[in-house]
Amino acid sequence: MAELTIQQKDGKIFAPLTGKWHIETPEELVRQDYICKLVNEYGYSLDQMTQEIKLTSSSRGTGSARADIVIWASVQDKADEKSPFIVVECKAQNITIKEEDYFQGQNYAYFSGAKFFVTTNEKETKYFQVIHGKVPKRLGNEIIGIPKAEDLKNDKKIEKLLNATKAFERDEFAKLLFACHNIIRNNDKFSPEMAFDEISKILFIKIWYERRQAKGRIFSLERFKELKKGYEEVASKDAKPFYQNLFDNVKKDYAQQDLFDPNDVIKLRENSIEAIIQKLERYNLSDTSDDVKGIAFEKFLGKTFRGELGQFFTPRTVVDFMVEALDPKEGETICDPCCGSGGFLIKAFEYVRESIEKDIQVQKEKIKEQYFDETFEKVNEEEKEKITKRVNDLLAKLNEELNPSNTKSRLYNLSFWSIYGTDANPRMARTAKMNMIMHGDGHGGVHHNDGLLNINGIFENRFDVILTNPPFGARVAKDQKITEEDKYTDTGKIKYYTERYGDEYKQALKQVTGNVNKPLLSLYETGAFSSLTETLFMERCINLLKPGGRLGIVLPEGVLNNAQAMQKVREYFEGRAKILLIVSIPQDVFIASGATVKPSLVFLKRFTEQEEKEYQKIVDEVTEAKNKKFKPGYDAIAKKLKEKEKAIRVEIDKEKVKALKEELKELKTEVKAELKQLDQEKETAIKAEVKRRFDYQIPIAEVEKAGIDSKGAKTDNHLEPLRNEYTAYRKANNLWEEIKRQSSYEIIDDTLMRMPIVGEPEMFYGK
């Protein structure tokens, strides 16, 4: 049988199931591509399929609802109008598959009696078991695939597929990564660090090829050998090995992101490379979901780095709580100045991305309601088709907001302009970038650099939200100086970042260039009384925030409690920020990640300009009042000194003068102690009164369980109800000003336009 291929011409695409040419919308292109896959790869015949069947039992109640592709177990079953076997819902490439986006198709699958439900956007495909017995209010179990046509009569194979849940796929991918790691360890005898670096290079060759070169074709061992043969036929004798040439292309493609050093090479033996490629060839990393890739990569990171490289990570339960507690919004800039493997940045990216996707879904429903109204049901089929095509076109344009390659899209703005991080360890910085790419991107703002120093887009007064778990328990040496090596010297990059960030970036670079050979501690006010890394990073985070910006930070318990040693630290931060929440969590949570200190989760908000003025006004007023109150005490001390000094001046007898001078010396010692005590009393009184007048509620919570025990096993997670309680509390008390920057959309002169808060309507999807 000849392979079924897509036919396109004049903006239309041929649908073999209808025998008609349809308008080539992004959804239609995905549908016809999947029909080809069903025929060519799964062995289904066109005669046992159909497309666009109207929903008759949908809970939505609109006449526009249709199932994209329906497959029967046989041609006869279709003719006899029996229950179909598989229902497929197709979406445009840029749509992340969400429950609300395809629940309509799930409904049809349920009411029609189908066993399998499939969603696809070409980039990723998800498979579900349809749960029967009650009206579906949720999606069925996510499974690993659907049967081929030849397996439809094999009940055991069908049952096996229905029971093979998605967790299998995640686990399998993680196991494959470990297997690849072991290949390198065994064949090449590399250290864990080097083995990790090399597997990263091969992974990114695979990602680069499948995403950017082959448009979904798997980078298999067979394909590697084919490409190698073609390369060697035309390459000169002194040319680089084929795999090095491939890696050079990857480095060039990711040059702007500093993912690899320009001089990096693959250090593996070729047989190791081929073995790894073969291990990974069952996965197409272009269409494997970000969820699967990301979770598997995190598992691989967690075990490799924690067990072998001596690194530890913030547990996911803690990351989720901290991000959700601070509720980052679209349009806000987010940073982690010591990002490690990128856990906070990934969660923040996913959190905001999901909010954008939900908003796009709302906008889609508005468009559908506008066109699929009561009049739609009254027009003839031809007119209905025109209206449906019009809606599909509008929805396709709206989908462009979710295209990370479209420089005008909301998702591009999130990926390119909103996420920033840095880590002092070059391996961790690179790992964070890779981790983020595996999860869906947002890696462009991550850099290798000392988190206490400015670099590229990471500088003062710039961020709305900071989430971090800084290094603590260590100290910055008093003699550690800023050196010439700390200066950023890449002129091309400096020009690029200057154009991107303007004069603020030039000014930010002076933090280093203007302080070479000065102690690092001198850059920080807290450096005068503390060299602890956690203290310096707290100040760094406050400095990075915009006025009113929010900070979530993991700290050792005791930094903000009553410990005398940290009094000046607390006073400093109380004068710059409001404490939003303090959560004490079990030490067990971090023992599983390799840490031993009992932690607290501390949430702060840098003073707004108004709060800063209010605080300073209170300080000035209180200081003035207390100066007046304590003035008699100071005057009395001064009077005693003056009287003694006068007595010395008027005394004639030398022996008496000598005695008076001794008394003056003793008096000065007494006065010094009295002044010190008086200063302390006044300072204490000022602080107490400022605290009384600048008073606000500080929620403090302690949780017994945080979702993970000392061995890394799952436990109850008391952070989840706390998150809900805190969210209600901070909204009721307006703890910070919530921005509302979601875009609205209007159809103007038959054209979909985005309506910005400020400015003219704009088109975001091309000409």
Q: Nutshell version of this structure?
A:
By secondary structure, the chain is of the alpha/beta class. The chain is built from 24 helices and 21 strands.
* Spans of at least 5 consecutive residues with low confidence: 55-64, 307-311
**Strand portion:** 5-15%
- Per DSSP, the total helix count is 24
Mean pLDDT, as a whole number?
85
Write up what this structure looks like.
With 767 residues, this protein is α/β, with parallel strands linked by helices. Among the domains are: 8-164, Alpha-Beta Complex (tt1808, chain A), CATH 3.90.1570; 168-308; 623-695. 49% of the residues lie in helices and 14% in strands. The protein contains 24 helices and 21 strands. The strands form five sheets. An eight-stranded mixed beta sheet has the order 12-11-10-13-14-16-15-17. A six-stranded mixed beta sheet has the order 4-5-6-7-8-9. The two termini are 41 Å apart. Mean pLDDT is 85; it is low at 55-64 and 307-311.
Per-chain topology:
Elements lengths: L7 E2 L2 E4 L4 E4 L2 H15 L8 E6 L11 E6 L3 H5 L6 E5 L8 H14 L3 E5 L4 E5 L12 E2 L11 H9 L2 H23 L3 H22 L7 H14 L7 H12 L16 H11 L9 H19 L7 H11 L7 E3 L6 H29 L2 H5 L2 H19 L10 H8 L1 E5 L2 H14 L6 E3 L14 E6 L22 H11 L1 H11 L19 H12 E12 L10 H8 L2 E8 L3 H4 L7 E8 L2 H42 L3 H40 L6 E3 L3 E3 L5 E4 L1 H14 L11 E5 L2 E5 L12
Helix pairs in contact: 5-6, 5-9, 5-10, 6-8, 10-16, 11-12, 11-24, 12-14, 12-15, 12-16, 22-23
